[in-house]
Amino acid sequence: MQESQAPLLTTTESQPEPLRHRTARAGVVSGGAEVVTRVLTVALSIATARALEPGEVGALALAVIVIGIVSVVASYAETAAIVSRSEASDGQYAFAAALIRGAITVVLLTTVVSALPVTTRLLAGKEGAVPQLAALVSALMWQPALELAASYPRVILLRQLDLTYLAWVNLIQVVSHVGLSVALLWSGYGAMGVVWSSLITAALTALLLWFRVARSRMPRGSSGPSKRVWRQIALETANIFSGGFIGYINMRLDNLLVAAALGPTGMSFYSMAWNASRAPVMVLSTAFSSVLMPTMARIQSDGERLKRAVSESLQHSYILLAPVSMAMFLYAGTIVPVVLGAKWTPMVPCLRVMATTILVAPLLYAWQALFIVSRRAYLTSIPAIVHIVLLALLMVPVTRWKGLVGAAFIDMIGASMLTLTGIVLSSRLRATLTWPVLCAVFAPIGAAVVSGLLGYAVGYALADGIGHDTLRVGVALLAYPIALVLFGGRNALWNTVGLFRAMGRPGMSWAAR
Length: 513
What we know:
Blueprint: E1 9-11, H1 19-51, H2 54-83, H3 90-124, H4 130-140, H5 142-149, H6 151-159, H7 163-186, H8 190-215, H9 227-262, H10 264-298, H11 303-340, H12 348-357, H13 361-373, H14 381-425, H15 427-432, H16 435-458, H17 466-486, H18 490-503, E2 508-510
Antiparallel strand pairs: 1-2
């Protein structure tokens, strides 16, 4: 190396921070915020269950589902504006997305109002909670309107990749919502207190986003959106809806089928295990949707950079997710009775199966993101339909035959088929899954299995208990990086460690590779 060559570390004053480090830092902030979100969500669930009667909790959940459909469908216009690219300005895309989202919101809320009497009787008539459900839905109708108010600045910030600020805003929203909800619950405001908390924090989020845009010098565009922009966002919204909405329904079908097979109690065990196992996956989902996807949309015309972004995201995701899956499998028998109580012990075998199912998640989110940024989001409906058909055919009979464990295995088969179908349809992801990338995926999984077996062997002779399982998990986690190196994952491990080190130095950056 010549002495005159530039050093590997340079200040951001002489060279801008590479996009991969900027994106990774935002991903860590977003993922960390999602961890906090999951913890606070559990705390809010416990507080709600203790403060309200089961019927009130059920009515609140149903109201959230009804209005959630409105919010999810309307949000597709924002996603379309984020991934679309042309000569138009970010402000023009944001303006068009806000108007399209507003039109969708008005149509859907009008539908909800028209169908509310029939819907409430169908959902809550047997328990006599029709008036309460109607009141909660009526109050929550303001939620999509407040989300609409935040639409314009959110699109601006996402298109400008101001991702870290958005992650902090999301964290502020969650912390405020949980804190205010608990305060209102214990002050006697009941389920309506949770609704008012949700509305207040939605308004707070809109104010924070508008404040950021108002303080920035981001170009908005002096003219209105062109016909091309309107047409582009409208078509992309329909495209995303065609795949996304089926996926939204798809995520809730298994709970209904398990309830049909085992009843509400069995469904509660399955649902609790599903939520617990998917908590680390939701962290990845947030990083992929709020960080990786906007970045991929920015570099989609550069095939090599896009390929590297996907391969590195898979590499880092599996290095982090594999030991979490292993620890969840080993620790489930102890942590469930301690945290949830002995009455939830029947969910332990189900949770252990689902702890292995989550390993398909990074590949799943990768092809979903690639379909969206390549304007082929409609293709996501095909894997979702395959998943729905598989669940519809197998979930009820297998669950009746083998109980919760049978339901968990059908969930595993369904998630695997969903992932494989998406990979088959995504030529970009198949091109990315070269042998080195596959090794980077399988090495952490193999290392987690070996280190988990070692931890199990070390604690085999000890009596069962929290100390026993803590020793198992501790030994397994200590052995994991060593096993990863032995499995050929040394470079992948150092790349992940190096990326975290680079993100910890806001004033420094590696030279762009």
